[in-house]
Amino acid sequence: MAPRAKKPPRPLIIVGNWKMYKTIDEACEFIKTLAPLIEKSQAAVYLAVPFTAIQAAAEITPTITVGAQNMSDATEGAFTGEIAARMLKEVRAQFVILGHSERRHLFHESNAFINRKVHRALQEGIQPLLCVGETLEQRERNEVREVLKEQIFQSLEGVTKEQMGEVLLAYEPVWAIGTGKVATPEQAQETHALCREIVAEAWGKRVANKVVIQYGGSVKPDNAKALLSEPDIDGLLVGGASLTAPSFNEIIHAYQGDLT
Ligand code: PEP
Question: Which residues contact 246 (CB under 8 A, 6 or more apart)?
């Protein structure tokens, strides 16, 4: 494998997305197992846990940054079943996943709606982790550039250069999420470089060089290292393989190289 090329210093961030799995007790047990294993890890470790487990998870250890998987675009109001950024802050959520493909596809979230959530998160001091990615049909029709450009431009419309320093991006090809089909490191690298180009077009090269772009889609202990060795892949967003402490721990420790 080619060594990871020198690149502008960007943090290495590994995020677990637990989706609708784990009770409070299960979350606490997992974190108590994982926390001592990752104290010396080079990677910053984030966990997006179910709403009910955020507070308990955040209180166990400062080693893991705990966040949510979604939130409302409104500050408060008559929105049955929704959760506000202020409420997430109250239980110590530090980041929020926005625009995950399951939200886009199963709950029909548009880029405009996601954009309102991004602004709300930034206003409330919660770090937004914006997910983008194409479907298999869009890839086969050679529409990757257009799709990603539309998602990035529209979901981040109005975000200032300064605010971009707070935003995390995740490239998650829809065809690779939960399917066992992972993008090859070359495919992922090419698309991450493309995302960076798109960011540069709107916010300039300096912002683009700094933005952390994670890869997500069937990441496992056996493919994590090759993905992280690519110069534009700054971290991983991990669904299924983040549900057990040993496999998530292996992924967190997959890359032990030069990060600067
Ligand atoms: C995800 O939930 O964002 C994800 C990438 O899931 P998986 O790793 O299971 O494909």
Answer: none
DSSP strand pairing (64-68 vs 95-98):
parallel
Please determine, for residue 1, whether its predicted confidence score (pLDDT) is greater than 70: no
Ligand 1, residues 237, 250, 251: which to mutate, most atoms within 8 A of Cβ?
237
Instruction: Supply 257's token pair.
Output: 């190289």
Q: Which CATH superfamily hosts domain 13-252?
A: Aldolase class I (3.20.20.70)
Mean residue pLDDT across the chain: 94
Provide the β-strand partners of residue 238: 16
Give 131's strand partners.
170
Instruction: Identify whether the C-beta of residue 166 lies closer than 8 Å to the C-beta of residue 133.
Output: no
The answer to whether 232 and 188 have CB atoms below 8 angstroms apart is no
Domain ranges of the chain: 13-252
Residue 260, pLDDT score: 45
CA dihedral sign of residues 8, 11, 14, 20: negative
CB 31 within 8 A of CB 249: no
Alpha-carbon gap, residue 4 to 185, rounded angstroms:
12
Report the nearest-CA residue for atom 2 of ligand 1. Answer: 239
Per the listing, tokens 């250069």 go with: 161
Instruction: Please tell me if the CB atom of residue 27 comes closer than 6 angstroms to any atom of ligand 1.
Output: no
Determine the Cα–Cα distance for residues 249 and 242; give it in Å rounded to an integer: 8
Q: Is the CB of 17 under 6 A from ligand 1?
A: yes
pTM above 0.90, yes or no: yes
Catalytic residues: 100, 172
